[in-house]
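[INFO] parsing input record for Stress protein
[DEBUG] input buffer:
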Amino acid sequence: MVKHIILWTLKDSLSAEEKETVKAGIKAGLEGLAGQIPGLLEIRVQTGRLPSSNADLMLDSTFVDAAALAGYSTHPLHVAVADGKVRPYTAQRVCLDFEV
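[DEBUG] output buffer:
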């Protein structure tokens, strides 16, 4: 199995209220991919955070293998969420992929 973890920081230009709306949209969009992409076993978005955090939200997803992760990255449903709900609002992205 392969884990795909992403941490995002939202743009500073967003108000606190806008950030909450964006986080909810990202969570709904990405978690809505469950059961729709081959090889995607689990997908969760964490939007709550402690004040000691330096990221705004986290994606924690599990794939059957590296090939499934590669397919996810270009799958039209994922690309639509990334282009419509994530990329326009994020300032920074950090990714860690690893085998478990």
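[INFO] Residues 2-99 form a domain with the Alpha-Beta Plaits fold (CATH 3.30.70.100).
[INFO] shutting down worker
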